[in-house]
Amino acid sequence: MAKVGFIGLGIMGEPMCRNVLLKGHNVTVYNRTRAKMGPLVSTGAKPAGSVPELVQRSEIVITMVSGPEALRDVVTAKTGLLCALSPGTVHVDMSTVSPETSREIAVMVRGTGADFLEAPVLGSLQAAEEGTLTILTGGDADLSRRLEPLLLAMGSRVIHVGDTGMAAHMKLLINQMMGTLLCVFSEAALTGIEAGLSAEKILEVIGYSGVACGALKMKGADMLLERAFTPNFPLKHAFKDMRLAVETGKAMGIPSEVTAAARDMYGRAWDKGFGDRDIAAVIRALTDK
Ligand code: NA7
């Protein structure tokens, strides 16, 4: 069993960390908002008072924070990861960040003598709770293989996709497609409803069509019927991913016009107060109903 430090106990991080703990690993936790450590500490995790304290007690340090800016903070702050990492320790970042950020963090971490692996995940809250995430790894293939038993505490499969940055690319392109799909679904479905089709009929027929897919199965009913928008994947993170996808496309010389329009739609829904609600609330960019 490994000594694992887990930083970032948000919607995804908390259940992922819980699964690591339940597999019997020796887990230390740290979260910027300390109160979020409580439930895991009650389940047997040890609380750390700071990031360096967590690193000193860990062989493997996992970060699962909101995005590139948060990751930079955790790594480079005065009392961040860099001032405590040393040879023999591994930093595994599971957050969704840009490939560029991931590569920069990898260089900084390796500069301390520690190892680095990027490992963003596919799947949202339910998969995190059930331990059925798909974990994409980028970096050294042997390191990925070595960490697989630990990663499988949180997921059903680990897929090594290439060098550092490639897992971030893979994760972003999935979220780019999911994010744009929900925007066009919003426009198309609202048009159909305005024309007189029922929401139930639209969802039923889409289910038999060539555009039936997991994303619409998961989100369609919430978007058109229930409108609960319970945050499994917060809309503010979808906006962040669309922003990163546009920037990444630009850096590759690929125009991302559709993605940019979708990013703006997430921005409008966020402006209307839906940033902390589920990605499904993007439909509210188009309607107040
Ligand atoms: P959440 O629920 O928004 O949680 C984000 C976590 O990141 C939470 O623990 C935050 O701490 C932490 N955070 C955010 N900013 C910082 C800074 N600046 N310093 C330290 N810690 C920070 O996100 P999810 O769990 O849904 O998602 C995590 C990742 O998976 C994200 O990349 C998604 O796109 C996919 P807090 O509790 O606010 O103090």
Spatial order of the strands in the main sheet?
A: 3-2-1-4-5-6
The largest pleated sheet is described as: 6 strands, parallel
CATH class of the largest domain: Alpha Beta
Q: Which range does the strand content fall in? A: 5-15%
Find the count of extended strands (DSSP E, 2+ residues): 9
Provide a quick synopsis of the model.
By secondary structure, the protein is an alpha/beta fold. It has helices spanning 13-22, 38-42, 51-56, 68-76, 99-111, 125-130, 141-151, 166-195, 199-207, 214-226, 235-252, 257-274; strands at residues 3-7, 26-30, 46-47, 60-63, 90-93, 115-118, 121-122, 133-138, 155-162. The strands form 2 sheets. It has a 6-stranded parallel beta sheet with strand order 3-2-1-4-5-6, with helices on both faces. A 3-stranded mixed beta sheet has the order 7-8-9.
